[in-house]
Automatic annotation (TrEMBL):
It is a multi-pass membrane protein. InterPro entries: L-PG_synthase/AglD (IPR022791). This is Integral membrane protein. The keyword Lipid metabolism does not apply.
Length: 345
């Protein structure tokens, strides 16, 4: 997990990288035709794209609620929507969006879910996302194979796919071999304790016991999902599919708003590949990678004169809107706790 006190430093870095990337893209794509197209923009489509992204928060919140309920812990939909929305703020500041998961676990714990069960819900969501993307990635690569014949780009996509696969395998191994996972965690704690010296020895056994307890809770929760909470998994899978359909539909709507006819197969395939790029843990919020990756992939079906504008509009929804809305919700629900103060130090 990334240290919370680094988030305040990552925010300006993430924004700086994103701004520079957007300026570079605009410099190389804007021409006189761009301004003519902007004059004829259909605002209602752009508002629809905003509405779609807002609706994705609701779907995500519903997924969290249904999966939590399947473990026997009743949570309110509005609270789950607040939890997932606030996590998008932290996710937008961390590589691979990994910061969002610990915050969701923390907030679910505050809703009386044991940490192990909250972790099972959050990691269960992550597994579903990974399975869906890894399932469609080969088809997306096949669609783009003849269009973008570049070995370097193929390598980058492969790295993203391998990274997602490794995470998925590690999570599955944690479920399949909980005792070996405990042994591995004990080994890591022992090594860290040795590096920190005698001062940490008193906390060593307590930490080991806590890790064992949470791993047992996590494993028991996943077993509960597979045995008694299968309906929750089924609902979660349905919400996952609907969530990504809604998210991926924003780009075609943006294209319609700029009077462009979207090629749906290419548009959806490009976004699957873009997810593979974004999960590579290189920069906070994948800033720079997202903008330049989108420019490369979207150039296949977007005229160069409006390519930069499309990338800006897409990034405004998927990144800047998350920062603004997620930030507002985060301060609302965390204002009375120490966690937000730690984040901004």
């Amino acid at each position: 997990m990334c240290p919370m006190n680094k988030f305040g430093k990552w925010l300006p870095l993430s924004l700086l990288i994103s701004f520079i990337s957007i300026i570079v893209v605009l410099v190389f794509t804007v021409d006189p035709t761009t301004f003519e197209i902007i004059k004829e923009v259909k605002t209602e489509y752009l508002l629809l794209a905003v509405a779609l992204h807002s609706f994705s928060y609701v779907i995500w919140g519903a997924r969290t609620q249904l999966m939590s309920n399947a473990l026997g812990h009743k949570t309110k939909l509005i609270r789950c929507i607040e939890i997932v929305t606030s996590s998008t703020f932290v996710a937008a500041l961390t590589p691979s969006s990994v910061g969002g998961e610990p915050l969701r676990v923390h907030l679910l714990y505050k809703e009386n879910l044991p940490v192990g069960r909250a972790s099972a819900v959050v990691l269960g969501e992550r597994i579903m996302d990974a399975i869906l993307m890894l399932t469609f990635a080969p088809f997306a690569l096949y669609i783009f194979r003849d269009i973008m014949q570049d070995s370097k780009i193929d390598t980058i996509f492969a790295i993203g796919q391998i990274f997602m696969a490794v995470i998925l395998v590690l999570l599955i191994y944690t479920i399949w071999k909980p005792e070996k996972t405990k042994s591995g965690m004990h080994y890591i704690v022992d090594k860290i304790t040795g590096l920190l010296g005698k001062k940490s020895e008193g906390k060593h056994h307590k930490l080991i016991e806590q890790i064992d307890h949470e791993l047992e809770q996590f494993h028991e929760s996943l077993v509960t999902f597979l045995k008694d909470g299968r309906r929750g998994l089924l609902y979660g899978a349905g919400c996952t599919a609907l969530f990504w359909i809604v998210e991926f539909t924003m780009l075609p709507v943006i294209l319609l708003g700029l009077n462009q006819e979207p090629q749906l197969l290419l548009v959806y395939a490009a976004q699957v590949l873009l997810i593979l790029l974004i999960v590579i843990p290189a920069t906070p919020g994948s800033s720079g990678i997202a903008e330049l990756g989108a420019t490369t992939l979207f150039s296949v079906f977007v005229p160069s004169s409006i390519l930069g504008i499309i990338v800006v509009a897409w990034r405004a929804l998927t990144f800047y809107m998350n920062l603004v809305v997620g930030g507002i919700i985060s301060f609302k629900i965390l204002k009375d706790t120490d966690i937000m103060k730690k984040m901004m130090k």
